[in-house]
Design goal:
Helix content is about 40%, strand content about 20%. The chain contains eleven helices and twelve strands. The strands form three sheets. It has a five-stranded mixed β-sheet. Strands 10-9-8-11-12 form a five-stranded mixed β-sheet, sandwiched between helices. A hairpin with a 2-residue loop joins strand 9 and strand 10 (about 140-145). Helix 3 crosses helix 10 and helix 6 runs antiparallel to helix 8 (about 215-240).
Length: about 300
């Protein structure tokens, strides 16, 4: 049995997989009082699931950050109370077995590459486009984390081939730089771009719906959004040449993405043969927790049972 935990800012979810079949799922509020309470919450979820199922399993955790290879501590986490703590070692001590921890976008990608929308693909680039814009890479159903644990973090690269107007209005990113991909094509970036254009406040899916209904300002905003998204993905295609790109997050439910992006990416990328396959995720907001469970192989999990 493999247990996966998705540690989010507001909710924490656990899933137990028997093979690829979920046999238990539970979701609780993430403690806001401190780091030690977060460890206790995850410990209780693991021990509670194992008591219910009468089995012991491997444990993987998806976090909104990564573990530094140099220090062994959490870094780059938007859940700041995790930063500078050895989360994998602390949880391992609490449950008396090894724990594997990976970035939540990596876990999303691994899930979709293992038994999701890209299960037939070898090289997969996973994109989470919601409040922010994360990414992950899977090759042969194995996550690539990189020497610094940031492989796939395309969101904090500059928007490729910026136009004069984009340079002049380059938005500030929370990382401290201006013009990051995330600042343009996240749900937050899309809403901000629409407000600059129209003076109105709408969320990303609402802007897409307004565009589909003929709203000219929303249509112009979405046209720019598709073009920026395609330019950004084209650089990924040139570097990785993935068999499939899987999109998750709140904006993945915009159906027009899968019509608009492929030909645009092909136009910008060095791909003279055909379009890169761009697909919607299969497992929705469960992909992260499933991918955390997939951090261990079935054989490794069986050895722990």
């Amino acid at each position: 049995m493999r247990l996966g935990i998705d540690l989010g800012g507001t909710k924490t979810e656990i899933v137990a997989l028997d093979g690829s079949r979920p046999v238990l799922r539970e979701r609780v509020a993430t403690p806001q009082s401190g780091y030690d309470e977060v460890i206790r919450c995850m410990r209780d979820l693991v021990l509670g699931a194992e008591k219910t199922l009468g089995r012991t399993g491997s444990v993987g955790v998806a976090i909104p950050g990564s573990i530094s290879r140099g220090t062994g501590l959490v870094k780059n986490a938007n859940a700041t109370r995790l930063i500078a703590h050895p989360l994998d070692r602390d949880l391992a001590a609490a449950i008396a077995r090894p724990v594997r921890v990976a970035n939540d976008a990596n876990c999303f990608t691994l899930s979709e590459a293992s038994d999701g929308a890209a299960e037939d693909a070898d090289i997969v680039f996973g994109v989470i486009v919601g409040t922010g814009c994360g990414g992950g890479v899977s090759v042969g159903r194995r996550v690539l984390s990189g020497a610094h644990g940031i492989a796939g973090e395309w969101g904090h690269s500059p928007l490729p081939a910026p136009r004069p107007g984009e340079i002049a209005t380059s938005p500030r990113c929370y990382c401290g730089r201006s013009g990051c991909i995330e600042a343009w094509i996240s749900g937050t970036g899309l809403a901000a771009d629409f407000k600059r254009r129209s003076g109105r406040s709408l969320a990303g899916p609402e802007i897409a719906a307004a565009a589909a209904s003929g709203d000219t300002e929303a249509s112009a905003t979405m046209e720019d959004f598709y073009d920026r998204f395609a330019r950004s993905l084209a650089t990924v295609v040139n570097l990785l040449d993935p068999d499939a790109i899987v999109i998750g997050g709140g904006l993945s439910n915009i159906d027009a993405l899968y019509v608009e992006l492929p030909a645009r990416v092909e136009r910008y990328a060095f791909t003279p043969e055909d379009c890169t396959r761009i697909v919607k995720n299969r497992h929705g907001d469960s992909s992260g927790v499933r991918g955390a469970a997939w951090l261990w192989s079935e054989a490794e999990a069986a050895a722990m049972g």
